[in-house]
Design a protein that fits this description.
Shape: elongated
Largest sheet: none
Radius of gyration: 38 Å
Strand content: under 5%
Helix content: over 70%
Number of strands: 0
Distance between the termini: 26 Å
Number of helices: 20
Length: 352
């Protein structure tokens, strides 16, 4: 049926069915007019106002259980896999943003103001326990000791090449021509050279490790001066200077690596328990608060909701209407009520 008159006059339908379908079409027309008419914005504001006001009467614990909330987080944060199309799209965005950043003349100071730097510096200087722990770690870690030894060996080989060059008299042809006393002297000399090299390596490695450890327990005054000097050196440099060595494909691959790492990390029982525990803390904190107070708590007001609804609503509704999708959508939402036997029975009673 395509019109109200055709349905009402269709002799194959009972009077109750004719009235039901007439009411259906009338209601469809009413809602379409409300959604697309001159006062549609007021209608939308009225709906959001009703929802927001009624939210004051409902508490979070009445609307959703902790298990339900955790199940949602479990599904979308810990289990859901991003589709290949979305990954490609995000990679494309990352490349475009990187290219845009390359053309920017913004400096590091534009991203981190001096005021923010002062706040972070003050907090860092308060972390005495962290610095003491770092000092102990640098002193006792075998990995740090091995790294310092590698640095020491590399420095000595690069800066003292003659000392580390084997003596030309070590060749077997020369050894046969030299007197016994001279061969013993050369052997003794090489042995002392090896011992000296080893002692230099050990001393330099210990010195480097000691300096690293002492750097972590500088006085607040010395540490502040050091950090400020570093900040003064980097803050005026442009972002381009730091990222220009990368390529767009590197940015995309970084994203893929981070996503793959997150997929693996989120399978860890520790991470899963931390996330779900965080959800529980959130739920217990707001469980006895109304939904309206919850919205207020996260910074959303009724005006915010109305503003965002009106920002996207008109164009979306217009697109549905222009494509002749709005009326069928409303029709299919309401139709099940009007064709059910209970509704037809009720209408029949009122017709008799």
């Amino acid at each position: 049926m395509t019109s109200k008159d055709q349905i009402v006059t269709d002799q194959t339908l009972s009077p109750s069915e004719q009235l039901a379908q007439a009411l259906l079409l009338e209601q469809v027309g009413y809602f379409k007019q409300q959604l697309t008419g001159e006062h549609s914005s007021q209608y939308l504001q009225h709906i959001t106002h009703l929802i927001f006001n009624n939210a004051q009467s409902l508490k979070l614990g009445q609307v959703v259980d902790l298990d339900q909330l955790q199940a949602v987080v479990q599904r979308y944060a810990l289990e859901m896999q991003l589709g290949a199309g979305l990954l490609e799209f995000i990679g494309e965005i990352a490349q475009k943003i990187y290219l845009y950043a390359l053309s920017s003349t913004a400096s590091v100071n534009d991203l981190v103001s001096d005021q923010q730097f002062e706040i972070w510096l003050s907090k860092f200087l308060e972390l005495d326990n962290v610095r003491i722990y770092l000092n102990q770690f640098l002193k006792s870690s075998p990995a740090i000791r091995q790294l310092c030894h590698f640095i020491a060996t590399t420095v000595l080989q690069n800066k003292l090449p003659i000392l580390f060059t084997p003596s030309v008299f070590n060749s077997s042809s020369h050894e046969q021509d030299e007197p016994a006393w001279k061969r013993k002297l050369l052997k003794f000399s090489n042995l002392q050279q090896q011992r000296l090299e080893q002692k230099l390596e050990v001393y330099l490695a210990e010195f480097i490790q000691q300096q690293l450890a002492e750097l972590s327990i500088l006085t607040n005054e010395d540490l502040e001066i050091l950090i400020r000097n570093i900040w003064d050196d980097v803050k005026e440099k442009t972002i381009y200077q730091y990222i220009s060595q990368l390529k767009p494909i590197d940015i995309e691959e970084f994203f893929v690596l981070i996503y793959e790492y997150w997929k693996e990390l989120r399978q860890s029982p520790l991470i899963q328990n931390l996330i779900l525990h965080g959800v529980e803390v959130f739920y217990r904190f707001y469980e006895n608060e109304s939904l309206q107070d919850l919205l207020f708590g996260i910074g959303l007001t009724e005006q915010d909701i109305q503003t965002e609804a009106l920002r996207f609503y008109p164009k979306a509704i217009l697109a549905l209407d222009e494509q002749n999708l709005l009326e069928p959508l409303i029709f299919n939402l309401l139709k099940p009520f009007y064709i059910r036997s209970e509704t037809l029975t009720m209408i029949s009673k009122h017709l008799t």
